[in-house]
Amino acid sequence: MTDFKTYAEGTPFTGKIGRTVSTSEAAWPSAPRARPGAPNVLVFLLDDVGFAQLGCYGSDIHTPNIDRLAAGGLRYRDFHTTAICSPTRASLLTGRNPHSNGVGIIQEMATGFPGYNGSVPKENGFLSEMLLAQGYATFGIGKWHLTPASECAAGATRVRWPLSRGFETFYGFIGGKTSQWVPALVHDNHCIEPPRRPEEGYHLNADLADHAISNLVDLRAVASSKPFFMYYCLAAGHSPHHVEPEWIERYRGKFDKGWDRWREEVFARQLQLGIVPPNTKLAGRPAQVKAWDTLHDKAKQLYARQMEVYAGFLEQTDHHMGRLITFLEQLGELDNTLILLASDNGASAEGSEHGMFNACIFANGVEASVEEDFKHIDEWGGVKSYPNYSWGWAWAGNTPLRRWKRYLHQGGMSDPLIVHWPKGIAARGEVRTQYVHVVDVAPTILDALGIAAPSHLNGVAQRPLEGVSFAHTFGDAQASTKKEAQYYEMIGSRALWKDGWKAVVEQEQGGFLTEEMLAKQKWELYHVAEDFSESEDLAAKHPEKLAELIDRWWVEAEKYNVLPLDSRMQLRMTVPKPTERPTGSRFVYFPGGAPQFDYTAVNVKNRSHTITAEVEIPPGGAEGVLLAHGSWFGGYSLYVQAQRLHYVHNYLGLAEYRVSASEVLLAGKMLLQLRFTRTGEHQGRAELYIDQRKVGEGDIPRTVPAVIETSSEGLCCGYDSGLPVTPDYRAPFRFTGHITQVVVDIECVYESDAEAQLRSAFIEQ
Questions:
Q1: What is the 3-state secondary structure (H, E, C) of 609-649?
Q2: Could you point out which of 45, 70, 75, 350 has its C-alpha 20 to 30 Å from the C-alpha of 606?
Q3: Is 437 helix (H, G, I), strand (E, B) or coil?
């Protein structure tokens, strides 16, 4: 190997410059290099996977690759998150508390206060930025959900996209959820279509694993020993629960016993495995969840099928994660890769009582029913579904704990954490009992790598890390946690852990929180060091301890930007967000651009509007979409087919209302127009025009009231991305004529559906 004289980038040239090259000495600018033998770092982050849903945490769901990591490393039983998606991810990547990051809630619910504006400041460097500066290659895979909703559009600023925060490559999706069959993909800084259609065998989990492996193939082709940091975020087990039928069939009949018995069996295994303390009690049933034995047979069949799909989805996820693990083993690098695997919050109850075949129905205020969903039982998990399971399975998935995602009892924020690093950890298959919080992950990784948190990063002075390392517990099962206290806040609910005690108060989510309400709230107190499942409220027995913890919570809240408290849900979703788009009632679109999502797309819901397409039809005719928003789960499309103009409004996959032109389209330039007149709440009349001549009309009895997107399928000009709005055509059904532009003019008056906005908030998390 040739030796080169080098100098650090940004420092003076260390060679010699003479009058000619013969009297000069070359030197090359050198990027930072990691120390020889530095370990790789791989973080797997699951989504909405509960404490009890992995095999190594007591489940009978088959997760052999995850279980392999646990058997070769450590399982933590007292690991905690923030109880919801975006705040957990921000804290994991920065080592700062969620509100210090400005991410006290999911991005779609951001408000204009420092703890909630959705914009992680540059002073809070990401782990990717820190490790990139230390000579690591950095890869982002899967879910992001750390970009403000108004900046997720392709034309928006990229300053809060992955490549602006230390990732050299990114392949995944920017928002909070997406379809596994037709995801809204981003490659680096570009929106792309999936490489294949579902009927061609596409599934997001397989695609993510393919790209994770290809990243390492490309790296090792040019840098055989350069360490990497890979942040690999699965969409599983967030809804929609999508998976191929062969994975579902492995679980046929496995959950007919119901959630009560399943939960008891899981709890028995957890005690046997030592994953819960031996004195743990099984937390009681929440009021919302009915006893399995009280359900009628059709409900039992439906709910059991929902869990079969979820289990198949999770096992298939494990399979594709295992492909990357196997590849690391083939490279000879598995033993020197520090792997951390966790979930971002507890199992999700967003499927409500009955679960749902199409989440768009729930988001728009239409209640799912056993009778309606049972009609689709054989399609559950397939391309025609956008499903979630009943909250009974979420409760069971968090065994033995109370509550679920979004709540600050243990079921919401006590999650699996596995650490695997054979070269750095001698223990195999052990359970660690120390209290750990997600804010401690970044400090722990830095500690294990022997890297100090930087005082400056990319020219910006850095705030101190707020988490503490738990790397000392890798080799010492008896070591005490270095954590002294940890606050929590979630949509007005609050909690504080300190020295094995926990105070918690759950705020009803949805309305305004007032000072009078604060004064009347009843806090609970648990000695969680002795009462893992929060079975005995000790508030009355230890009022002085409760008062101490409540007082400390307010201190932490002041320190970390938690205030003002805000228990709103739907109103936070509708708070105007800063955007570079000018305000007004006219939206102009050009063909071929990337999809525009809800926060940047024109909002035609429940208001009169016109869509005017300036087109040219060639002599041979043309067909295709002029403007479309949504999918067959709900939306609208203006398109040309069989030489005629058509408009379809898809009401939540429940009904299609179609208006077609009475005249064929001749060749030449023309204006094609839809005029929609609102005639009542969520209903109207559609008229079609060719060059101002009416050629069709009809009533639209019901329109989508609040939420069009389920799979993050945005508004498209000249094509229909993802799944089509109507089965009349096959997506993308690109327009084969010429579109100059499509103009949408809207009536400025907009009547929002507050209840539907609240439901939308639930499914976005």
A1: EEEEEEEEECCCCCCEEEEEEEECCEEEEEEEECCEEEEEE
A2: 350
A3: strand
Full DSSP string of 121-169? -TTS--HHHHHHTTT-EEEEEEE---S-GGG-STTS--TTSGGGTT-SE
Helix (H) or strand (E) holding 416: strand 414-420
Confidence of residue 762 (pLDDT cuts 50, 70, 90): very low
Per-residue pLDDT, averaged over 555-566, amounts to 97
Q: What is the DSSP string of 671-697?
A: EEEEEEEEEETTEEEEEEEETTEEEEE
DSSP string, 189-213: TEEE--SS-GGGT--HHHHHHHHHH
Please give the domain boundaries of the chain with CATH numbers for all domains.
1-30 (no CATH), 40-477 (3.40.720.10), 486-568 (3.30.1120.10), 579-764 (2.60.120.200)
Tokens of 324: 């990357």
Percent composition of the chain: helix, strand, coil (DSSP 3-state, to 5): 25, 25, 50
Write out pLDDT tens, residues 313-343.
999 999 999 999 999 999 999 999 999 999 9
Has residue 1 got a pLDDT over 50? no
3-state secondary structure of 30: strand
Q: What is the dihedral of CA 592, 142, 439, 319, to 10 degrees?
A: 170
384: left (phi over 0), alpha (psi -120 to 50) or beta: alpha
Pair type for strands 169-173 and 460-461:
unpaired
CA–CA dist 753, 681 (Å, integer): 10
Alpha-carbon distance values, 520 to 515, 523, 556, 566 (Å): 9, 10, 21, 16
Q: How far apart are CA 296 and CA 293, in angstroms?
A: 8
Mind spelling out the 3-state secondary structure of 455-505? CEECCEECCCCCCCCCHHHCCCCCCCCCCCEEEEEECCEEEEEECCEEEEE
The answer to whether residue 757 scores a pLDDT higher than 70 is: no
Helix (H) or strand (E) holding 75: strand 74-80
CA 559/CA 485 separation, integer angstroms: 13
Residue 295 has pLDDT above 70, yes or no: yes
Give Cβ neighbours of residue 428 (< 8 Å, ≥ 6 apart). 71, 72, 73
pLDDT of residue 619: 96
- What's this model's pTM, rounded to 2 decimal places? 0.95
Residue-level pLDDT at 599: 80
Q: Which two tokens stand for residue 235?
A: 């969409």
Q: Quick check: 665 pLDDT over 50?
A: yes
pLDDT tens per residue across span 700-716? 999 998 888 665 689 99
**DSSP notation for 234-278:** --TTSSS----HHHHHTTTTTTTT-HHHHHHHHHHHHHHHTSS-T
Alpha helices by DSSP H, listed for 332-408, are 359-363, 370-374, 391-397
